[in-house]
Structure formats: structure tokens, C-alpha cells
TrEMBL record:
It comes from Streptomyces roseoviridis. PANTHER family: GTP CYCLOHYDROLASE 1 (PTHR11109:SF7), GTP CYCLOHYDROLASE I (PTHR11109). Residues 1-19 have a biased composition (Low complexity). GO terms for molecular function: GTP cyclohydrolase I activity. It is an enzyme of class 3 (hydrolase). It holds the Pfam family GTP_cyclohydroI. Pathway: Cofactor biosynthesis; 7,8-dihydroneopterin triphosphate biosynthesis; 7,8-dihydroneopterin triphosphate from GTP: step 1/1. Its EC number is 3.5.4.16. This is GTP cyclohydrolase 1. InterPro entries: GTP-CH-I_C/QueF, GTP-CH-I_N, GTP_CycHdrlase_I, GTP_CycHdrlase_I_dom.
Length: 207
């Protein structure tokens, strides 16, 4: 078995976050926001808050380059369905800047090569580290994985809990949104498509 690390010539991924933020400036702005919200940023309990919030933003925003993905040769494998599920990540809804929890399931057809399993989680985490909408997030993961395997035979299902819909606005705590992005044989082969959706439904964590 040989191992290769591939940083794919993946499809162009728009809206990459800037590599690193000015945390001092962000902290200043958070201090100003506290003032505008009627708070005293000098009061006990708030003095470190701007710094903490700035550190959190810095931690949240994913680095600009997507993670390298390791693949291993498995020459006898042909057309095996591989599905990785139960990947839970937090992102921020770009309309309200409020968290959304995304439960990700990703599948592909292994053909002579397998992708390192943890890399699915790294890719899922990478695209969550920015202001997002669920549909774009789902597509970005699928397109990135297709670039890694060099074929379109990829399907990604995401189940999202949007706090902007649960804790504010329409306030529907139980609402969940499911998005599916499928390519290649996951589109042309209904049996495969059904297999993926069945496995994805079985792997889904209740949130
Ligand atoms: N399609 C999609 N919509 C989203 C996502 N996250 C949040 N939204 C929606 O973005 C919309 C923004 O609607 P607006 O009418 O501009 O904002 P709003 O007045 O705060 O809307 P309400 O949430 O209905 O109070 C809302 O319907 C949200 O539910 C997402 O990932 N995908
Ligand atoms: Zn929102």
C-alpha cells in the first residue's frame, strides 16, 4: 500500500476568509459594540471580553488553504461505496452571524484508491470556518472531495440546526434543514443514490 498526500487542484473555492485577522482591531471594535449595546466594557466581567471574542474569531476563521488530503492505493478496489458520517461542526450563518450546527455525511466511490478517513472531517471543519449558508457549505465540501478523488462520484448530505431559526426570528426549535449535493454516479445510478441516502439517514446523529 502506498500513500500520497494530495492538495488537489480543486475547483476554485470562492469567498476564502483572509489569512489571519487583526485581533487588536477586532477587540477594539467589540469594546465599541459593548458601549453601543449600553454596557460598560470596563466593568468587572467585561474587561477581558473584547480580547476573548477577538481570539475566538481568530480561532474560528479557517486558514485560507484547504487541508491536504492523504490517499492510499488499494488497486483491487472497484466501485466500493464509502460513507463517513457523524461529523458535527459549528459554523456561522452569514445572514445573522449566529451559530449553525452542521451534521455532515460524505460518500464517494473508491476506485483503486482510498481517502484517509479523518480527512473528511478536516474538510468538513475547514469549510465551516467562515460565514456560511448551508447550501454553499454542502456544495463546497462535495466539490472539494471530487477534486481530491479526481472524479465526480461524490455525495454529501448535511443536516443543519440554525439557531437563527431556533432561538430568534420564527423560533422553531425543532426545525432542521437537510441539503444533499450529489455528482457523477450518485446522480445517474438511482440504486447507489438510494444506498447513500439510506446509510446517511442511519448515521445521522440526533441533534
Ligand atoms: N437558504 C438558507 N437560508 C438561511 C440560512 N441560514 C439562514 N437563512 C435564512 O436567511 C433568511 C434571512 O431573511 P431576512 O428576511 O433577510 O432576515 P430576517 O428578517 O432576520 O428573517 P427572519 O429569520 O424570518 O426573522 C432567513 O429566512 C433565514 O432563515 C442558510 O444556510 N440557507
Ligand atoms: Zn441566520
Amino acid at each position: 500500500m502506498t500513500s500520497t498526500t494530495v492538495t488537489p487542484a480543486a475547483p476554485a473555492v470562492p469567498r476564502q476568509p483572509a489569512p489571519g485577522i487583526n485581533t487588536g482591531r477586532v477587540a477594539d471594535l467589540i469594546g465599541q459594540l459593548l458601549v453601543e449595546l449600553g454596557e460598560d466594557p470596563r466593568r468587572e466581567g467585561l474587561t477581558e471580553t473584547p480580547k476573548r471574542v477577538a481570539a475566538w474569531w481568530s480561532d474560528f476563521l479557517a486558514p485560507a488553504s484547504a487541508p491536504a488530503v492523504t490517499s492510499f492505493t488499494e488497486s483491487h478496489l472497484a466501485g466500493q461505496l464509502v460513507v463517513v458520517g457523524g461529523m458535527s461542526v459549528w459554523s456561522l450563518c452569514e445572514h445573522h452571524m449566529i451559530p449553525m450546527n452542521l451534521q455532515v455525511t460524505a460518500g464517494y466511490l473508491a476506485e483503486g484508491e482510498v481517502v484517509g478517513l479523518s480527512k473528511f472531517g478536516r474538510v468538513a471543519r475547514h469549510f465551516a470556518g467562515r460565514l456560511q449558508v448551508q447550501e454553499r457549505y454542502t456544495r463546497e465540501i462535495a466539490e472539494h472531495l471530487a477534486g481530491v478523488i479526481g472524479r465526480e462520484d461524490v455525495a454529501v448530505a448535511v443536516r443543519g440546526l440554525h439557531l437563527c431559526m431556533s432561538m430568534r426570528g420564527v423560533r422553531m426549535e425543532e426545525a432542521r434543514t437537510t441539503t444533499v449535493h450529489a455528482g457523477g454516479r450518485f446522480v445517474t445510478d438511482p440504486v447507489l443514490s438510494q444506498q447513500f441516502l439510506t446509510v446517511a439517514a442511519g448515521q445521522r446523529r440526533v441533534c
